[in-house]
């Protein structure tokens, strides 16, 4: 098939005609009518939303924001906006007003879709500081709309109950749709400045779908649980793929209910970040540690058998009848029970967003749950490389998609070229030019390839950090925010591949000692002062006050106060006073590990 035949809207319309009354979208623990949406209803609802937007004056390639937790309405609003040929701009529902207003203003968005009371309150505030924002559409019909907003604020359900005469205009727009239309702007966290809007078009998405067809065994009717945020490129691109291939997408609003959702939904697949797998692994290890000695020995034996069987299945080790018989017994006694915790019918789990610990990965491979680690970024519409069922190399991110080129540049930087690579950054021609080198996207990550072409990430050239939950954090932003405190001289945060942010803080001793004298604190040394409970509590309170403008995942959760400054003499800062993070992390490895020891 030519790439033009992979246009997202065309593929979804084909599935709607074919699958009709089968379930396309399901809201876990949601009330009717959103608990289950058939393919026909999905097509009708999204077309109705497109007509609503046209009626509200949304023009071709105007921008519409979605700020909401995952739910069927999210995808209906997404596809409805795309049918109107407008551009979808997702915003994390955990964003601060400062972060959201920057994106709305930069995109000059006309319409915002929100879900609950809290998000509606933010939308009302955004309207006062974002001149372009004309209309607010609310998913939750129980939210009370503000007074005097009758022609600006709407409940989605009420809009869907109305009648519109925009069908001819909608059909005209659909017929004129093409792969060069922009599909979405996804804003990435800036390392030193403001977020940048990544421009992804229908060609990017079409290529992603075609290339995933060549790698994955996904079938029509397979159930996928969407619990990572749809505002992130990983879950959203995957949800497009699931639906374009006739899958059944289940949406989880409350991520605290993921265990119950997996048990009830029994998904065939779900996208995960390493932190999710770490939690499952830790829970199993904790349970085993509390078991009788006989059960511990059986578990250890089963893990050894599973690891050998996995290596044999990948063609890297010898199998045989005896190993096969042991595996069958281990599967009955151990693996099947662990698989049942994850629903019992997982075909595979795409995993991305951060590095996966080798021990955690080996555990899942051993128990027969294929975790397919991949590498990608927003600028590549997610996947660049990925493992497959028959090619899973521990520690690697797999081989490149078949129509995607990768090479290593200066300092082994990973360079990418292909139809999934972004068009550029919205309204930022200089940043766009800086992101490319002779037509190749500069990823900011360093890597290496093995003899079979599997990619291994070796370092991060860029300073943007990713938590193990897949959240991007710009360290300079966090450090700059807390560094405004008069009691803080220097700060270095730790977040990369960790499940929360911590910090090494060098106090401004002159200010701190003056404060301590005022409070009448007694101490014999600087170290004793830093360990004083009143001092620790003082810094906790200061950080709490300073971090209100940061999103929850950006905030420092634990910190260690250091008795000496980062210095050039110790090799911890450069002559221009930039932090040498690797050196700092090495010197203070003990203190850092202590902050994550729980």
Describe it:
The chain has three domains: 3-177 and 216-265, ANL, N-terminal domain (Rossmann fold, 3-Layer(aba) Sandwich), CATH 3.40.50.12780; 279-345 and 348-460, Rossmann fold (3-Layer(aba) Sandwich); 474-595, ANL, C-terminal domain (GMP Synthetase, Chain A, domain 3, 2-Layer Sandwich), CATH 3.30.300.30. The longest helix is centred in the middle third of the chain and has 21 residues, at 293-313. A hairpin with a 5-residue loop joins strand 22 and strand 23. With 598 residues, it is an alpha/beta fold. It starts with 7 loop residues before the first helix and ends with a helix. It is built from 21 helices and 26 strands.
How many domains? The number is 3
Helix/strand/pairing category: alpha/beta
What proportion strand? Answer: 15-25%
In CATH terms, the superfamily of the largest domain is: ANL, N-terminal domain
Separate helix tally: 21
- Average pLDDT, to the nearest integer? 93
Distance N to C terminus: 52 Å
């Amino acid at each position: 098939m030519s790439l033009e035949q992979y246009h997202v809207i065309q593929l979804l319309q084909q599935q709607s005609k074919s699958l009709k009354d089968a379930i396309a979208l399901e809201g876990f623990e949601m009330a009717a009518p959103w608990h289950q949406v058939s393919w026909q209803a999905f097509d009708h609802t999204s077309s109705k939303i497109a007509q609503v937007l046209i009626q509200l004056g949304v023009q071709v390639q105007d921008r519409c924001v979605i700020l909401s937790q995952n739910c069927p309405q999210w995808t209906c609003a997404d596809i409805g906006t795309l049918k109107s040929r407008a551009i979808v701009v997702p915003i994390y529902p955990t964003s601060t007003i400062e972060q959201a207003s920057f994106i709305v203003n930069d995109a000059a968005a006309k319409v915002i879709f929100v879900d609950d009371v809290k998000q509606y309150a933010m939308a009302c505030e955004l309207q006062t500081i974002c001149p372009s924002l004309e209309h607010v559409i609310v998913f939750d019909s129980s939210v009370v709309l503000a007074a005097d907003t009758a022609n600006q604020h709407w409940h989605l359900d009420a809009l869907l109950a109305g009648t519109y005469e925009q069908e001819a205009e909608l059909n005209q727009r659909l017929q004129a749709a093409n792969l060069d239309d922009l599909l979405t702007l996804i804003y990435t966290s800036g390392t030193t400045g403001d977020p940048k809007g990544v421009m992804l078009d229908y060609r990017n998405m079409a290529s992603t779908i075609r290339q995933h067809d060549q790698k994955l065994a996904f079938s029509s009717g397979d159930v996928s649980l969407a619990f990572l945020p749809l505002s992130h490129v990983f879950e959203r691109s995957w949800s497009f793929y699931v639906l374009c291939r006739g899958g059944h997408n289940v949406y989880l609003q409350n991520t605290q209910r993921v265990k119950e959702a997996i048990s009830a939904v029994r998904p065939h697949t779900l996208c995960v970040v390493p932190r999710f797998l770490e939690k499952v692994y830790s829970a199993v290890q904790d349970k085993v540690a509390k078991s009788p000695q006989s059960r511990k020995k059986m578990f250890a034996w089963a893990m050894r058998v599973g690891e050998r069987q996995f290596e044999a299945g990948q063609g890297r080790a010898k199998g045989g009848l005896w190993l096969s018989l042991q595996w069958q017994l281990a599967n009955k006694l151990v693996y099947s029970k662990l698989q049942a915790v994850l629903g019992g019918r997982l075909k595979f789990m795409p995993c991305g967003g951060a590095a996966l610990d080798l021990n955690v990965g080996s555990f899942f491979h051993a128990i027969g749950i294929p975790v397919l680690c991949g590498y990608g970024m927003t600028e590549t519409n997610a996947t660049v490389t990925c493992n497959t069922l028959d090619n899973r190399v521990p520690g690697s991110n797999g081989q490149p998609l078949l129509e995607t080129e990768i090479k290593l540049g200066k300092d082994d930087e990973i360079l990418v070229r292909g139809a999934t690579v972004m068009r550029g950054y919205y309204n930022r021609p200089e940043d766009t030019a800086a992101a490319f080198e002779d037509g190749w996207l500069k990823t900011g990550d360093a890597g290496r390839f093995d003899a079979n072409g599997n990619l291994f990430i070796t370092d991060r050239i860029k300073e943007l950090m990713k938590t193990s939950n897949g959240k991007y954090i710009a360290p300079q932003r966090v450090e700059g925010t807390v560094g405004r405190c008069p009691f803080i001289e220097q700060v270095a945060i730790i977040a990369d591949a960790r499940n929360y942010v911590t910090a090494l803080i060098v106090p401004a001793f002159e200010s701190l000692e003056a404060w301590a004298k005022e409070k009448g604190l007694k101490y014999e040394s600087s170290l004793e002062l830093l360990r004083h409970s009143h001092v620790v509590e003082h810094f906790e309170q200061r950080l709490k006050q300073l971090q209100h403008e940061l999103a929850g995942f950006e905030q420092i959760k634990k910190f260690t106060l250091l008795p000496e400054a980062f210095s050039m003499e110790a090799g911890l800062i450069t002559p221009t006073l930039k932090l040498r993070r690797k050196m700092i992390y090495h010197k203070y490895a003990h203190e850092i590990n202590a902050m994550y020891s729980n």
